[in-house]
Amino acid sequence: MIVERPAGSGSGGASAINRPALPTRLGALARPLRMPAVSAAPAVYPEPTTRPTGVLGRLSVAGLTVGLFTLWVALSPSLLPRAWWMTAANVGVSIAYGYLVGSLLGRFVSWLSRRTHLRVELSARSNWAFRTGWILLLVVVSIIVWIRSLHQQEAISLMAGVSRGGALNQFLGVLAGIVLFALLLLLGRGLRQLRRSTTRLVGPILPPSLAPLAATLIVAALVIFVSTDVLYQRGLNWALGNATQLSHTSPEGRTAPAEAERSGSPTSYETWESLGRQGQMFVSDGPRAADIAAATGEPALEPIRVYAGKAQHDEIDAAAQAAVAELVRAGGLERSAVNVATTTGTGFVQEWSVQALEFLTGGDVATVSMQYSFFPSGLAYVSDRDTPPAAGKALFEAVEAEINRLPQEQRPLLFTSGESLGSFGGQGAFDDADDMLARVDGAVWTGTPRFTPLWSSLTEDRREGSPEIAPVIDNGQHIRFATTPVELTEDFYGAPLVDWQEPRVVYGQHASDPVVWWSWDLLWKEPDWLREQVGRDVSPYLSWDRWVTFWQIASDMPLSVDVPSGHGHEYKHEMVPFWAGVLGLDPMADYSPIIAAIDDLVLDR
């Protein structure tokens, strides 16, 4: 059937167009469809966009979130007010730790969702809104936390009596900490990229299951080698070289003493040059008989100070014997008391401790010491914990043996003392508390590092209910811990102690002294002193958090002596009542003339 279109219809008046009849077209549609052949090969789809895997890949949202949480914690109070670099170090390592934990947590959640086929899908707009809102919330909370931390830092500054620069200082510290985190992140990603490259290198020669493990071990070995044999060892050698050079440099304003009672004098076995920098300070400083008489109003003897330096006596035993020979030469065994003072790594002797004993005894005392290392205490803490107690033991036993050669009635009282690393080293002379009490007539230990075995055993055995910062031992019969001098007469809470019997031992330690309270187990364990929160010069907002608190207390240590006496690691004025208590005097008496005299004599080191 033909359907004709009328003339003139259509475009341009063209003739009628012949088309198939409608039934014919429908019939064609009714014929069976021919399906295209299906190939057995899998379909190929466009590869989805993936995250960059190089060093500059995208940041983990989960990692940044947890990193911000640790930033907030890092801004919380520690023991002392912070300088900007203290804030930077704490913020940098804390964010890095939080980012690592958050990234691992995010990967675990992603793996778990794949295993359980759990998917949460958002539209592009909703996803953008959620991410943007979440980031803004974190930023706002971070600003609030930072402002709050400024008020807390101000409160700590008032308690410690020192300022570290205010808001600008802390702001610069946070910025520097973020930069440090970025550097640590780049380092971590660089190591990850190195591991992947190493995996590809060893892949052709190892089974697929072993290649990643082998690559990990290779990179770990490389990191250990660079960290220990290159960075650590070379850094240690550089620091030791500088410390040794400094030790051989004479201090300004000091000259060799003329008194026979001092090492380095014309009659001394030890030359002025051999004493080293700290030894020269020790024998040239301190009161003379006239200074003591002026402060006490009583006649006084010339205090004896003897010292052996490491430059001339490299072996510990040789230095100890040289110090004892000096003690005998100077007439030290003829005095009423001998004080064995263990030094810090550089040979530093705590001047306030020595002078307090000299003034309180009217100069009738001989102090003997020696240098056993060139290392500053900070380096000795991490590189050599064997030498200080060995030196403390050698010197004490050498002096003890010399005293024991005398008839009983002619023997002087034997005291011992030390601060910081000197306290750690000095206590190395004794097996336990009973051994110490059996061999000394008195001792003053200040700023004792927490890892000191004798200190630790006493603290663990303290009376139940007494705080870790001021433990009570046997109701104070022989050994007394004190954060302030008043605790030599009563416990931390004001309860009376028993009568103080000879021998008397004082452990002076401030609640805000990071040298005392820092320890490796802060990384994973909350100590009693933090849980108890009873320090009078410590922020009530100080709390324990895994990893972060470790770095907070560690960053407090370098400037812990840059605070007024009675705080941090600065033990000065309280040394007079401490020694008064050991001598059997009233520790709460007025010793202001002696303290003022020592203040005038002690020079900055």
From TrEMBL:
The keyword Magnesium does not apply. Residues 246-269 are annotated as: Disordered. Keywords: Membrane, Transmembrane, Transmembrane helix. Residues 75-287 form the Alpha/beta-hydrolase N-terminal domain. Residues 304-585 form the Alpha/beta-hydrolase catalytic domain. The chain crosses the membrane at residues 55-75, 87-108, 128-147, 167-188, 209-227. InterPro entries: Alpha/beta-hydrolase_catalytic, Alpha/beta-hydrolase_N_dom. This is Alpha/beta-hydrolase catalytic domain-containing protein. It comes from Ornithinimicrobium ciconiae. The lineage of its organism: Bacteria, Bacillati, Actinomycetota, Actinomycetes, Micrococcales.
